[in-house]
């Protein structure tokens, strides 16, 4: 069986598509015939700097969608969704799950796609900074499915999109009075925390300012290297280091609650949608460098897919 992959031979060089060695799956591994690849900011960051790469040449990439070729048992999620649509979810959804639900992070109770959330959850509020980003779109959907009051930020052109994901209120992140607006919308509610889906130093400071004005709260960022500066006493930064890829305890809580329950039935009953929309560059892996460049330049409410 022939396998193709895009190789990075050295930092700051283009990816080169070539034949890759084919390995039979071992115990606890599956073989997937891949049909679509989504590009994340980590891909260009690794291409530009070589960060976290142990040896070259290497194959980058975190998001794939395809058909399972070899597995002892398998659960079919749905066959109504195109690979190029569903591939936008895996890393963004997983990243949002860690930050929102895992022990030692924001520790919010994860949603169920099949049960109605308790009505008192409306009295609990969470902020998602960057609701139109890939990670942010998943965070908004997960919190909305939990029945919480979700405040999100985005550019005004993306307000309708972020509201369609379930955000209760959306605020323009370029508006200088945004902190006052967020604080006003949170007053009288239990504050679950601020999830910074962008992870820039500037967005971290704004999230901390929001929590500081409210007088308490937990801050979590999608990027554990974010420089948040010194924290006021009443604001806690949680999750300073990344959890293992599969979550704690061998991945069981994350897998059971979110991937098995929420993702499976959520995709079928529309509580989880494949957002942001894929921007598909037709032509397969040969267009991977264009896709990475697109993400490097900055996308808005879109995910580059080949
Ligand atoms: N993608 C993943 O699975 C993943 C995994 C782990 C960590 N991360 C990290 O999480 C961060 C976000 O990644 P992503 O893939 O979700 O990003 P993305 O989809 O490429 O982010 C694009 C969005 O970011 C928003 N944005 C950009 N600058 C902003 C700012 N200063 N304030 C508020 N919003 C801003 C834009 O919103 P508007 O267009 O509405 O202005 C745009 O829609 C990155 O630092 C990434 O390295 C991502």
From TrEMBL:
Residues covered by the Alcohol dehydrogenase-like N-terminal domain: 26-78
Gene Ontology MF term list: oxidoreductase activity, acting on NAD(P)H
CDD domains in the record: enoyl_reductase_like
Domain Alcohol dehydrogenase-like C-terminal per the UniProt entry, residue ranges: 135-216
Domain of life: Eukaryota
Pfam family, one: ADH_zinc_N
UniProt keyword Oxidoreductase present: yes
Subunit structure, interactors included: Monomer.
Protein family according to the UniProt entry: Belongs to the zinc-containing alcohol dehydrogenase family.
PANTHER family referenced in this protein's UniProt entry, alphabetically: HYPOTHETICAL OXIDOREDUCTASE (EUROFUNG) (PTHR45348), ZINC-TYPE ALCOHOL DEHYDROGENASE-LIKE PROTEIN C2E1P3.01 (PTHR45348:SF2)
Organism: Massarina eburnea CBS 473.64
Bilayer-crossing regions: none
Protein's name in the database: NAD(P)-binding protein
InterPro entries per UniProt: ADH-like_C, ADH-like_N, GroES-like_sf, NAD(P)-bd_dom_sf, Trans-enoyl_RdTase-like
Swiss-Prot/TrEMBL keywords: Oxidoreductase
